[in-house]
Amino acid sequence: MISRSAIARLARSAGFLIGLLVLVTSVVTSVLAARDKQATAQDHTLDLTLEQQTAAVRNYFDQSRAIAQMLADSPVFIDFYQAPGTNQQKIAAGGPLLDRVNDTLAYLEELYPGRISEACFVDRDGTQIARVVDGYPTDAKNLRKNEQKASYFAPTMALGPARVYQTRAYQSPDTGRAVISNSILLTAYGHTGIVHFETSLDSFRMPATTGDRTASIVDAESGQVFVDSRAASTITGNADQTFVPLARAGKLKGTTTLDGRRVAYQRMPATLNNANDWYVAVSAPAAGGGWTRGFSVWSLSLLLGALLTILVSGLSWRSHSLSVRRAASHDALTGLPNREKFTERTRNALRGGRPAAALIINLQGFRNVNDVLGHRHGDLLLTQVAQRLTDAAPAGAAVARIGADDFAVLLPGDDLATARGTAEKLLAALHRTFLIDDFQLDVEANAGLAAAPEHGTDAETLLRHADAALHLAREQAATVQEYDAAHDTGADHRLELLGDLRRAIGDDDQLSLHYQPKVCLATGRVTGVEALIRWQHPKLGRMAPDRFIPMAESTSLIRPLTAHVLDMAVRQARLWADRGTPLPIAVNLSTRCLLDPGFAGQVFGLLYRTGLSAALLKLEITESVAMADPDRALTVLRALHDAGISLSLDDFGTGHSSMAYLQRLPVDELKIDKSFVQAMAGSRADEVLVRTAITLGHNLGLSVVAEGVEDEAAVVALRALGCDIAQGYHYARPMPPGEFDNWLTTYTESLSALTAGG
Known about the structure:
Residues 354-485 form the GGDEF domain. The chain crosses the membrane at residues 295-317. Pfam families: EAL, GGDEF. Keywords: Membrane, Transmembrane, Transmembrane helix. The N and C termini lie far apart (126 Å). This protein is an alpha+beta fold. It is flat, with a radius of gyration of 32 Å. The longest helix is centred in the N-terminal third of the chain and has 69 residues, at 4-72.
């Protein structure tokens, strides 16, 4: 018979072995999990960067095609063919006819410096009619006679009119640079010719990425690196052989490890009108290599947990019970109390008629973070937001997470004035840049405020009114908004209004554009207009933009709305241009536009369909829009700017962007927010701010516009400060196109009379 002591020893031995097994399993599991986590995080970051770089390359091809198509529509080439005489006679004669052709080709290089260095006009027999290299026309005696031997010639002829052909990379015989060519066929008066220009291969080089990531363009046939974010481009490729196995495998898309580097790649195969067969690849040293990288604080915590499990296994059930109860009352991600727990605490704070205030805070654009960067980055952002709110909240306050991107703060004993000060302090804490892995994110937030007993004496009413105040803050673009019963229209009304707006898009009887002039302060001349949307609701009448634009911004409806506004503005600009009064039209952009890699291509397509010059379209962005996702926004902005579209930074001074980032923005114009312009007459601080903004804009090479100019005194002050352009009621309110035409005629006649009289 086995004694009790032997049984006890056996039990202790079994317990020791089980504990040891748990310990070893914990170590192995921890290391493998840490390595997998590192690798997964790296793959996610590489995939995100690859998506941005691929979109940038596609945009370059789209831009080049749009440029070629606009060139083919230029009347100068048609006029050349229409003029009497043979091509050789007209070339030998020179004069204005040929000068116009050369000027058009040279202007192309001027518009896109560093990208386009050679452009030519070629007849179907292979004879060059004109060629411009680095801005200088080529003498007639040096024009080539055998362009039919060039690689672009035969494929372009085969494609037919209005189709653009893009060659494989080659070394330009004129500049010696690595280039691809873009050519398009045009026909007129029985003649056929080709407009051809070379785009520098180096212009496809992606900007330097953060950390140790590298972006490359690789020849899909040989694996040679044509374009690299670290080095200049060559048609022979550099010495990097990392991607040769990628070319041999021939896969379209994926992630792999090559020569110690983790590589995310996307193939862009050749097409009928583009002979380039490329891989876009983003790479970095592979993460998680070696066992030592798996050991982390979390690994040690697991080891300690295994030992504690052996020693205190009897307490496990109690701990489990506590966890279950906590899970029912707290948010699993942030650890903050959930809505039910927050409501319970609010009830306790209001007992006996005691005063209290409730704040509900919403993060603007959080859905974009999830859509663009992924849910992992969104979760990391939420945990950092929770920590900042907890750190900034006063003693005795309760912070909770009550929705996907909604947080609540209970302020027991606070009145409205005190609660508003706390709300502004909390939002200021959120306006500092968040660092999420390698990405810098700037977050805007709104807050709704309700206080007891003014806005309710029970928890449910107080929180409902705080939520209504939050919706009002979002609609009025305010940071903190107190509850106002007069504006509490309810969620049902907002949903109904969104449905009405969706049906109104495309209905010119409801949605229209009004135009407000922008006037040069030095000459008084009208330099352009800003397009402002108006909605004539069939039942509610005229709707103010600040009532429906924030609602559209919070949903996917903003994209079709922006597309509709752009279409109306571009067609109006073309109409004015055809009448002989070309006026650049400015249109405001939403955050969602700059996060859409295909947005630039949509704009180029609209310009091509309407035939409007890119120089007559200006797109306005705000600092907060540009900072929603800086890297992706820069990709889209650079594509638009490189195509000749002017960009303007609107409402300057009201955002939270860094000066270093502003210097990277490819903008041409800076608009000072009207709140500072209108306050500068009575505020020395606002006058200094306006002067500083003007100086900053000029130092960055930007034109400066002052918004909200309402009287002659403001005009005089701004002119003395060196401001370039003014916009405001002093000159005109926003007007429908017909009224604007009448105003412009009257204003121009008055200006001419004043100039003549002076």
